[in-house]
Amino acid sequence: MRNHTYSDIPVKGLAQLFKLLAEPNRLHILCSMGLECRPVSAIVADTGLTQTNVSFHLRALREAGLVKAERQGSFVFYCLYDTRLLELLEDLNGWRLVHGTQTESTAA
């Protein structure tokens, strides 16, 4: 456990991050990207979202500093800015499973 007091934690900044990540389509996009840089077309194919919807969410994720865009020829590939984000998502999912919070099938 870290030696932080609650006053050391940037609560507002974390709340903004969690609000951004609370959107299911954004989480789906992040999980689709994984550790690879991927073009929008691959993310669209993986998620089943429209290209417009994927582009909208990628913009929000890019502006928040969670993903970065890299041009390769005529394609733009999107990558996680820091792969520790995937570790965080895996840890949160593990915590959710251990503590019996809502599952996807009951979260409607």
Could you describe the 3D structure shown?
By secondary structure, the protein is α+β, with helices and mostly antiparallel strands. The protein has a domain of 69 residues: Arc Repressor Mutant, subunit A. It is built from five helices and three strands, in the order ααβααββα. A three-stranded antiparallel sheet has the order 1-3-2. A hairpin with a 2-residue loop joins strand 2 and strand 3.
Short description:
With 108 residues, this protein is α+β, with helices and mostly antiparallel strands. The protein has helices at 11-21, 24-33, 40-47, 51-63, 84-98, and strands spanning 38-39, 67-72, 75-80.
Q: In the CATH hierarchy, what is the architecture of the domain at 13-81 at level 2? A: Orthogonal Bundle
Amount of beta strand:
5-15%
If helices are DSSP runs of H or I spanning 4 or more residues, what is the number of helices?
5
CATH H-level superfamily title of the domain at 13-81: Winged helix-like DNA-binding domain superfamily/Winged helix DNA-binding domain
What would you call the shape? Answer: globular
What is the alpha-carbon Rg in Å? 16 Å
Mean pLDDT: 89
How many strand elements? 3
CATH class assignment of the domain at 13-81: Mainly Alpha
Helicity level? 40-55%
Q: Would you list the SSEs in sequence order as H and E?
A: HHEHHEEH
Query: How is the biggest beta sheet arranged?
Result: 3 strands, antiparallel
- Structural class comes to alpha+beta
Low-confidence stretches: none
Please list the strands of the largest sheet in the order they lie side by side. 1-3-2
